[in-house]
Structures are given as C-alpha cells and as structure tokens.
Amino acid sequence: MSTPEVPAPHPGIAGAPDAGTIARLANALFSALPTGAVPEPGAALGSAPLFVAEPLQSAIPGTPPLTPPLRPNHNPGSASPTIGAARPSAPLFALDPKLAAEPAHAPAAPLDLTVPLAATPVAPAPASAPAIQPVFVRETDLAALPGRLGDVRSIVPPDTAGAGPFGASAAAASAPLYFLADNPLARVTPAAAPTAVPRAETFDLAGLATQHRTDVHVLDRSGARPFDAHVFKRDFPILQETVNGRPLVWLDNGATTQKPQCVIDRLAHFYKHENSNIHRAAHTLAARSTDAYEAAREKVRAFINAPSVKDIVFVRGATEAINLAAQAWGRRNIGEGDEIVVSHLEHHANIVPWQQLAAEKGARLRVAPVDDHGQILLDEYEKLLGPKTKIVAFTQVSNALGTITPVAEMTALAHRHGARVLVDGAQGICHLPVDVQTLDVDFYAFSGHKMFAPTGVGVLYGKADVLEAMPPWQGGGNMIADVTFEKTIFQGPPDRFEAGTGNIADAVGLGAAIDYLSRIGMANVAAHEHELLAYGTEQLLTVPGLKLIGTAKEKAGILSFVLDGCRSEDVGKALDREGIAVRAGHHCAQPILRRFGLESTVRPSLALYNTHDDIDALVDALRRLQSGRGVK
After folding, report:
1. How confident is the model at residue 627, as a pLDDT?
2. What percent helix, strand, coil does the chain show, rounded to 5?
3. What biological-process GO terms show up in the record (predicted)?
4. Does residue 233 sit within a domain?
5. What is the pLDDT of residue 366?
6. pLDDT (tens digit per residue) in 602-614
7. Annotated catalytic sites, by residue?
8. What CA dihedral angle connects 259, 263, 265 and 271, to 10 degrees?
9. Which listed residue, of 90, 213, 508, 588, carries a Cα 20 to 30 Å from 549's Cα?
10. Is 437 part of a structural domain of the chain?
11. Is residue 320 assigned to a domain?
12. Residue 347 pLDDT exceeds 80
C-alpha cells in the first residue's frame, strides 16, 4: 500500500501536532489500508509524531476530517468493536466515560484528537479469547491520595462472575493477602454495562501517599481511564520475540525495562535529523540537539516536580548519581568522626560509595535494621540519628525485596537532626509517582533504563542550595565559564556537574520515555502493578516448597523467592527454557539477602506491560519443576 509522504519535523521543537493535522493524517493512512486490514503489531501509525511540534503541518493538504469517526477499541474494517483492540490514534486510557455504559451498536463518539498519539495498533483478540476487563481509575479518586502507596489495598472488585479484573480469583477479591492482612480492602463498584463494553470501575485509593501524588496526566478529566496491559504490551517490539521457541515473558524489569516503539523511534530520529554536540556551536544541528537535550531536562523536572531545571543533573545512571553526591558533597562536608546512615535494604551502589568515603575521611557508616518482613525499624533508625549524622542515604524501593520505605517520614527525622538525605530512586521512579518537593529530599537519584528509557543515562536531582555549594566532581569542557592557566571559573548547576560530552541522544530518549509514562499516568501504573503484585503473591504461594522473601505490607512489583531443593540459578535457567526471563542471584544486594540467611533468590519483577498471563506462565513452570516433571 502507499502511505502519504510526511516532511521532516521542525528542528529542535518539542510538543504535539494539532488535532486537525492528526485527523488528516489518520484519515489518509486508513484510507490506504485495504478493507478489513489491521495494522501489524509494532506498527508506528500512532506513535511516530510523539516528539515534535510541527511534524505533519500541511502534509496532506485538504484531507477532510476522519469519516466515519472511529469508536474506541474499534479497528477499521472489523465488523464490530473488539475488547482489547485499540484504535491507533487514541491513548488507550482515554476512553470516553459515556461509552462505558453504551451498547456496542450505539452511535460512535468523536475521536479525542487534542492529545498526542500514545500507542501502536493492536489486532483484534481471537474470538475464543476471554473478554478483557480493564481497570478504570477516576480523576476524582486520584485527586485525594492520603497515606503511602503500600497502603493501597488489594485493588479488586467484588467477585460477581467468579473472577476479578485481570483474571483475579474470587479468593483474591474477597480477602487481603498476608502482607496486607491488617489493612481493610479497598473496594470497587462496577458500573452496569453490556458485556461487550469494558465496565467503568472506581477505586477507593485512600492510601496513596501525598508524597506519591503528582499530576497523573489523565486526559479526560470527567471520565474513566481503562488500563489494559495486554494493549500496552504491543508498544514494546521486543515483547513479540520468542525465546527457545516460546513467547518471551519478561519478568526481569528490576534489572532493566524494555523500550516502547516511541522511544526507539525518538532515538532514530535524533541520529537522523538532530545529531550534534550541544551548547557549543551556532549551526542548525547544534541548535536542534541542544533544544532536544534541554527539553528532556524540563521533562524530568516536571515528572518529579523539581522546582527548577537547574536542579536536574544528567549522569550515566543512579550509580554515577550517588557517586557524584558522595564525592562532590561528601568530601566537602564529611570529616573524621562524622556519621553516614544507610539502611540494610541497600543496593551495593548505595553502600560502596559511602563506605569508601567513610574510610577516606575517618567517618563511621551506620546501618538502619529491618524486621523479618523487610521493613525498616523506624524506632531503631531514629536512634542512629544525632549531631554527628551528616547524611542519610536509603532506597525508596528495595531492589531485592520490593519494600517501599517511608521516605517522607525518614527524611523528616533526618532533617530534624540537621542531616542531608539522599534517596536511591532507581526502583521507585518506575513504579510510583514521585514528588521531590513533597518528599523534601536533598538528593534523588535514578536511572533511565529502569523506566523504559535507554541505558547509560540517569539523573541526580539536588536542592538548589545544596548543588550551589558543591564543587564539580570532574573537570573538562562544557562545565566551565572561563579557563586560564592560573584558575578556572566554573558554570553553575547543573552544567558544573556535566563535564565533557554527555549521553545526548539517550537523554532525549529519556524524555520520550517520560512522555510515554506521563500519558499513561504513574498513579494508573501503580494501581495496575499493585493488583498484579497481589495476584502474583497469591499464585506463587500455591507452588509447593516456595518461600517468598520480603513480605512488607508496603511493596512494589518485586516477588523474590526461593524454592526448596533448587539452586536459584538453576531455577532461572529452567524458566529461560520456557522463554520466561527472571533474575537469579544476589541482585547486588548481598547484605539484605544475608540478613535472611540467603546468598541468592529468584526475582521476578513487574512492569506496566505485565499481565496475569505472565504470572500464570511463571507459576505453571514452577509447579512442573517442583513436581519432578521438569520444565519443558
């Protein structure tokens, strides 16, 4: 088929095409499809222009608006709307609320073309496939979110047909899991709707933290947003891969997440149209690359609600961010006899730099203990704080156990004693909404590759007064205002900490990943992952000889376990034979595993594209392994 020719985007400008332009393009694209055709999975009809302001202006002059208008979940050429099949041009969570109770034959609602396109098209589900019941979250529920994320209970509706959303069993819908046992369940009230149309369900999210409350970026403020991970999975080309002849089940998100097509496209666009070094030239490509790089910095700022782009330092990842803070801040502010407090939950990246600094300066490293569920003992933590405490460094979410730490409370206690606070957000940024101003942390570190962005890029957020008082960590180009052989005058933050040529393209890719997550809404991601965590916990506990490690009441999407009679590495290899990717080992968190008497665990870890089917495949394989039949 032929597709309309689209001119290159305007250099260096970020934003979204206008509604009329998108309508003309979509109409022309679908006009070119043969009757009944459905775009292939991974096609980029809806995702290519996510990152430009004027990508398609006058591309198809005179093309009329879309006719006829498409219903949500309707593929052109199909006989009727299909649950789980998404129109290519609409964000998957922006369902018109009127359609939730609208029969399938009702008049179609007009397209909402006021927002960027969000996802790639999806083929209709086979006729034999079970109906998908997406989760809906209303704007009104997301506007008042007290408590911490882990206080969100098992988010499932009353069991009206033998199963909850995403295939949750009646047991999961009627009783809290053991790590939520002392908390009442949140309930949902499904709206009456025909079986052919997804029902709107309202969650009582009366536990989601103020510190996790950011702009959730919902698009239709009056309506409900469905969350269907099966559809989002289509945005990630690698998830269509097969491994050992089996469909890939990616449950190694704690190590790295996969990349959506829009991020891949953005990287390709940068290298095709914008590639140049930044800040140092007057030519057009330098302007384009500089604009794209600094636009990504602004996206990061908005995503974590930092006060200024000057508070956002691009680095290689969370590890480099922590090392930067330890060296640039720590060497100036920590001396002999001072104390650094970390927690027992930490990744090696948040232990080793402080350990090295303590050894160099003659300071003392102190460790906040955890209980047998993997929760920080706050009373014991507070006892560690005193006049000698200079900095407290702890994780937001444990990469080994999934424990969500009480960041705001721990930060307030540290500040009461005059200490600075660094939070390792590598495992938090991908699961939770983050607001650094509400958390009141002095530093927040995270990696792009844990949040669907490329590897090799990350961020250190620092409060303005803290960064201003820090000397540069490395010297070189880009971070100087003036150099003579007698002295050097450095730039202010953040340039002072970005010596040399940075990872420009991947920073731009990070911006594209933030666009993707922002259109979905991190509160929606958190609600989906929490329900999946509850389902996964319930199902894994049915496997004979399986013991979960890390049973905190407040958890993110980590399901570490050991299996009687099996080495963790052997379990990981056996699962790989079925195309199931998990992490098996010590997860660069040996101290916390040894706290539980272990050297390694098997660690499935969740992301927004994981489904009940992924959990079921994992559990079925583990049952066969334990029954002695082995994994096929």
Report:
1. 83
2. 35, 15, 50
3. cysteine metabolic process
4. no
5. 98
6. 999 999 999 999 9
7. 588
8. -110
9. 213
10. yes
11. yes
12. yes
